[in-house]
């Protein structure tokens, strides 16, 4: 049974990855602006003063501009660093902060490293996803970092996954360790799920 689920996840991820790689530069730039506007509105609505956010790769909905603007406005933004043991360390984002290639070739911040529990103090988690279904189940990229983080938090704040509009789908394959999200942010909309209990 788990093999069937894993095969379905792999196939869906491959399809989504290919679609992302086929987006034009202008479509990606427009998406980044849309994501920034949606995240700014979400922060305002939630009254968040501290949050975690990921640094997007070139094919993901862009978050770099959002992070820069949030830091400039005085918000405390924690950026993740992948560890070999499957946990995430955190760095506080700074204006014009340096970025290096981290584990798995992902963009990660350079700075003073805080341990995994640093994220327990944030008001909002903004995380990556390959897709999210209408019930709020998130399909990640298969390494489990964010599922582990969400699942281990004593008091988990709202968790919003950033995806392209076409990645909000009817259903995603799920396993027992997969964690749902409170909502999604796309370049054109923010959706909070009725079932969100975070």
UniProtKB/TrEMBL annotation:
Keyword ATP-binding: yes
Binding site for substrate: 55, 60
GO biological process, one term: folic acid-containing compound biosynthetic process
Reactions this protein catalyses: (6S)-5-formyl-5,6,7,8-tetrahydrofolate + ATP = (6R)-5,10-methenyltetrahydrofolate + ADP + phosphate
Cytoplasm is among the record's keywords: no
Broadest EC class assigned to this enzyme: ligase
Highest taxon, organism lineage: Bacteria
UniProt KW keywords: ATP-binding, Ligase, Magnesium, Metal-binding, Nucleotide-binding
Molecular function GO terms recorded: 5-formyltetrahydrofolate cyclo-ligase activity; ATP binding; metal ion binding
InterPro entries given in the database record: FTHF_cligase, FTHF_cligase-like_sf, NagB/RpiA_transferase-like
Enzyme Commission code(s) on record: 6.3.3.2
UniProt xrefs under Pfam families: 5-FTHF_cyc-lig
Binding-site list for ATP: 9-13
Family: Belongs to the 5-formyltetrahydrofolate cyclo-ligase family.
Protein name: 5-formyltetrahydrofolate cyclo-ligase
Organism: Microbacterium hatanonis
